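Lab meeting notes turned into a lecture example. A postdoc, R.K., suggested we walk through two folding results consecutively so the class can see how the record format repeats. The first protein's sequence and structure tokens come next.
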Amino acid sequence: MASFDDLNEAIVTCERCPRLREWCRQVATEKRAAYRDATYWGRPVPNFGDPQADRLIVGLAPAAHGANRTGRMFTGDRSGEWLFRALHRAGVANQGYGEDPQDGLSLAGVLITATCHCAPPDNRPNPDEITQCRGHLGATLALRPWRAYLCLGGLAWTQLHRTLSITAPRFGHGAEHELANGAVIVGSYHPSQQNTFTGRLTEPMLDSVMAQFLRAGRSPASPA
């Protein structure tokens, strides 16, 4: 079983998906005008949070000019602004913002991962790329005896269940699936601009599902 640091090193150095690696490097070179003076990360983005966590948040993939720029999950984009504010209000983040890896943000009891660790074109990894990255998700699941999982979006919900080799019930905001070992999977709409700008996801909704996630699960469950 890999350690937290060894797994992150394996993620950062991964070259399994040529299309994604080429895209991330291209974005890091061409940049967005607003970040023309920034040095982009341009590599697979490692897991972020508390190495001793017992609760896991599963996102989709890094944003091209968010985590692909900063090198930290959900950092530098609007989705991350929503997520970190919610984590701070819930008492598991020491601050409600994440701008770059040197901003002092830390999480307590929570780790953040993704179904795909490279930024995909149009925010859509293809099925083969998701499959290639599933090994990293499986290794993350093996790190700790997780008590609860929060899946941000339907793809994360489906892929987490698939990685655990269990059938996924219908996804929905606030959906819960208790596993045989006592761990609980909670579903949430992703805090993407598509959802937050349209009002499909509001901050009270995100706060509610965050509280649901943090109180879910019996005392430490086995990884699978």
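The second example is placed directly after the first for contrast:
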Amino acid sequence: MDAVSRPPLVEMRNIYKSFGGVHALEDVTIDLFPGEVVGLVGHNGAGKSTLIKILSGVYEADRGEIFIDGQPVMIRSPRDARQQGIETIYQTLALADNLDAPANIFLGRELIRAPFSLDEDAMEAASRGVLDRLKIYVPSLRESCANMSGGQRQAIAIGRAIYFNARILIMDEPTAALGPQESRQVGELIRQLKKEGLGIFLISHDLHDVFDYSDRVSVLKNGRLVGTVRAAEVTKDDVLAMIIAGSLPSSGLETPRVPASG
């Protein structure tokens, strides 16, 4: 199958979701290809979080379909999402600060050497392996996460997802509250994940991040998809116009189902 005709890694098709009388999402369709980053942008209340929570199994859509590798799937819980290789890296990272890197990577899925005995050496070796794969150096894996940099903490959260075979990552504001150096480190992580063929949905209010990392940008406004554009073919002002006014730019509109070149 050639690149153009291959199915997306993920497709969310005609998604609807209401909360009482509030229409959070109306007829939203987006897709994501392997080795691609799709930025999701829009004002608070635009529907980004609701859409991603449907993909991650927190909410069920009222209507619509989800496809993984072209096959329809049912995602009714976070467990269903994980079984499909979908992991979410939240802004808060969901790390236990008092624990070290291996304990966080294997939290809830610890390796057992004997009854009631953790195989700490195996968990440390596996943790070092996944961080090396991400090209992240952490001097001491036995240091508590509370004492690590923001970039290292992001790497541990991502390492946990990668070790358990995530293929689709949802990253929520990955550089929020990080300094320039740590933000660059996260950028390198994203580029490495793309090289490995993972697909990433990136939620961010920072258009600089969106344009630095994304192949395509999907804009939501008032629960509807304004459009999806190729980041290399539009400007930040074009995307701002989509966010604020709900208007489409004259260039950069994607051809349906064309994967990113990078």
